[in-house]
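Extended Data, panel c. Modelled sequence:
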Amino acid sequence: MALSRIKKNEVLDEVSGLLDASKLTVLAAYAGTSVKELQELRKSARENSTHVRVIKNRLVIKALQNNERFKAVDTSALKGQILYAFNSEDEVASAQVLAKFAKTAPTLQFVGGISSEGAFISADDVKALALLPGKNQLIAEVLATLSSPLDGVMNGLSGNLHALLDGVEAKAKA
């Protein structure tokens, strides 16, 4: 069923808003994926603040061309049945969600991605991004690295303090 001009404009506005807000938009071909599998993908994506939409490529191309930041994006890969995963909170979450889903549904294939700066990213680069830890995990790792010298000093001091207390206790008993 064809969309009316008003409905197309609404979809165009929505896509423009999603592209503007998204830190990374991942594109994946989904030909051969069942409706039930796509519903499962949408459900798991929502848990990670990722918004998955199936949108006509023509409308996405138009939304990209209407936005100054995305005008230079190569749209030659936007062919066939493509779904778009948007995430405005985490740079790699949308790639991770689709990569995890692709393990159980091999019909899903990465096509590429669009960065928040307006650059097209190849499918191989998107796969590499999917292997990176998420933002929260990276923050936790940095904090652990920064606090490790302090932890080492504290452990060393508490060990010496225990040895000193043991020595004092042994002298007191003697």
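Strands lie at 24-29, 50-54, 82-87, 109-115, 120-122. This feature is highlighted in the accompanying rendering.
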